[in-house]
Design goal:
The protein is 31% helix and 25% strand. The protein is of the alpha/beta class. The protein binds nicotinamide-adenine-dinucleotide.
Length: 256
């Protein structure tokens, strides 16, 4: 059984993960961190300051807020605990802190913890190699109306995946309201829509004059990210210090 410290335990993802662990899992949440007082229904102690936690645990999972990430990373390093970082919109300074932490403890970070989405990243890489420059590439994402960042961290990972597979410089063009000019070959269009309770939709269009290849992924419940985070926690528990991601989990699937 992997004992989890759940940072952001009072939020939507924290609670989704709690539900999964309650319904049969090889992970259990033994303590949590959150600045919220809304701890209703949680049967573990919740700490406003994660470094004050006096309950023993194996792995930290973080689904909180970008501002909360430095403190939880410092706690992971001070307590020598593996950490799974799922929070998005992390700034460069904090990314550098995470990088440094990975030389001391195992760090797992992915903008999207869904197994299927990570298979999609690989498919996008293959499609980009096969279709660019003959096809224009556009990324469209949709999320619920409470999401703070746009485009999503996942859409940015898709863009990075496309860029990694094209030798020339590609410009990201966010929506198109501020330009009135023809689309150039070396751009990736990035569009975001927000509304209702959409968990997460990502579509990558490869468009030529004659055909459209569309790779898409729909997350139907938040549980898909929670299950991925718990898989990552079990994966990370006995690993050496280093930087890991869902790529390490998905890689094997392409080499069967
Ligand atoms: N990587 C993925 O697959 C994935 C999937 C879903 C969400 N996310 C990201 O995870 C994060 C959380 O998502 P959510 O939908 O659960 O959000 P949420 O707003 O429902 O929950 C966030 C929780 O973090 C708490 N929090 C805020 N500041 C804090 C601090 N300083 N210390 C401790 N806790 C703090 C809030 O009180 C809240 O309970 C977001 O960044 C979101 O984009 C990532």
């Amino acid at each position: 059984m992997t004992k989890i410290f759940m940072n952001g335990c009072c939020g939507r993802m924290g609670r989704a993960i709690y539900e999964i662990t309650k319904n049969g899992s090889d992970c259990t949440i033994v303590a949590g961190g959150d600045i919220s007082d809304n701890t209703d229904g949680l049967d573990f102690p919740v700490f406003k300051d994660p470094s004050a936690c006096d309950v023993d645990y194996d792995v930290i999972i973080d689904f909180s807020n970008a501002k909360a990430v430095p403190a939880i990373v410092r706690t992971a390093v001070a307590k020598k605990k593996p950490i799974v970082i799922c929070t998005t919109a992390i700034d460069d300074e904090t990314l550098a802190l995470i990088d440094d932490a990975s030389s001391v403890v195992p760090v797992f970070k992915s903008a999207n913890m869904s197994y299927g989405m990570n298979v999609v990243f690989e498919l996008v890489a293959q499609a980009t190699k096969a279709l660019y420059p003959g096809f224009d590439i556009e990324v469209v994402e949709a999320h619920h109306n409470r999401k703070l960042d746009a485009p999503s961290g996942t859409a940015m990972t898709i863009a990075d995946t496309i860029r990694d597979n094209i030798s020339e410089e590609m410009e990201l063009v966010y929506d198109r309201h501020d330009r009135s000019q023809k689309r150039s070959k070396n751009e990736i269009g990035m569009s975001a829509i927000r509304g209702g309770n959409i968990v997460g939709e990502h579509e990558v269009y490869f468009i030529s004059d004659e055909e459209i290849v569309k790779i898409s992924h729909s997350a139907m419940t938040r549980a898909v990210f929670g299950s991925g985070a718990l898989t990552a926690a079990s994966f990370l528990k006995d690993k050496k210090p280093g930087y890991y991601s869902m790529k390490d989990i998905v890689a094997g699937a392409f080499n069967k």
